[in-house]
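Quick one before lunch.
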Amino acid sequence: MNKSDIGLIGLGTMGAMLSLNIAEKGFAISVFNRTVARVDSFVKGAGSLASQITPARSLDEFVDTIAAPRAIIVMVPAGEAVDAQIAALRPLLNSDDLIIDAGNANFHDTNRRAAEATAVGASYLGIGVSGGEDGARHGPSIMGGGDRSNWGRVAHIFDAIAAKYQGKPCATWMGPGGAGHLVKTVHNGIEYADMQLIAEAYGVMRDGMNMTAPECGTVFGRWNRGILKSYLTEISAEVSNATDPTTGSPVLDIILDRAGQKGTGRWTVIESQQTGAPVPVIEAAVAARNMSAELTTRHVGEDLFGGVPQVLDRESLTLDDLEAALIVGKIMCYAQGFALLARVGTAHGWELPMSAIAETWREGCIIRSAMLNDMATALGEDPGRNLMFAPYFADLLRRNQAALRNVAAVAVAHGLPVPAMSAALGYFDTMRSARTTANMIQAQRDFFGAHSFERIDAQGSHHGPWGKA
Ligand code: 6PG
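Model of the 6-phosphogluconic acid complex:
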């Protein structure tokens, strides 16, 4: 029997779609799932691709059907299930067999697992895969991490299955250990922020401009033909235009306003707090999801304070302003994400390929956007420069910042919550302030804790004349 080129464990949605994608690109793949019945139903549904797929009914059989040295993708829920799967697999493998975790792992876990593998002479990769179900099936964006020579062993498979931007595969080795999963985590942080900014624009249209969901859909569709062209803008138009078959209402109107999360946005914020790289728009987006979850409390709040925002006077705010505000917000959340990546990368001794990260996100992933090509160019010119200072983006910011200011001001004045837009504006205004108010913070710290401060006119650390007057 011919052995498979690669194996995959975990036939949930992403694993199943990735397997079909691999098979379609001409690779022979063995598949296994803890619930064995799923293996049969998967192969049955694979149609003509079934001839490329070897179903296995036990882990031993699975390992045995893969050509050595083996490459095995593990696509199980992040966390303990990954450790359990590795523990079950290792005794069946040779030291040069490669385990590849393609789930949304916490990159610290991937660092640990990579170190554990190295300690026993085994091979391990952690790769971030973005693009949801459709991306996994037809071309995801792939962010690789681990030993570079191990990546080299499977890069041809990932290049084949990845999305292509003008023919170039969106699959890149990001660095050792958990570097790939770090890049995927921050990708998701940006995803949270971009989604929240779009949701706030929708809120301004729905509550402030009295627009119906399909009217919002038309606007998102129009924006998707301009600078905001992106997957998230596109799907926002689609979801706004959809009708609920049961009620005949717009689907958006019957969806509960409570958003869940699996944790990658939160992990991004934790890394920001750990390293001191500010990501206020992403923080606002994570907090907004948490606030959305406080449904009962919000109802109490509305009863107590009155929640119905006033409809805006249409002269005070235009849809063009809203589009311009989103452009600024979007630049801010990407700029913060890339700056965070650089900071965390440095903390781990990784030279993350900043421009190649932007290139890898140009197609296939959830945050793919027309802006990413210009970001790749800007980061190629200067990988250490905050994107908001790159000439192309600085120009966009100069032209559009007044609109964000207007949207935030009008929304705040009318009681419409725009926490991510406000955070974007706060970041913009702070990052263009040569003199902030942290001198007051330093004076307070020195007053109550003798923490000392720096002076603008002399070197060294100093104390104030507190209490001596
Ligand atoms: C992607 C997505 C994907 C998934 C997120 C959603 O890049 O394909 O980010 O990984 O949709 O896990 O995350 P939340 O459930 O936390 O929103």
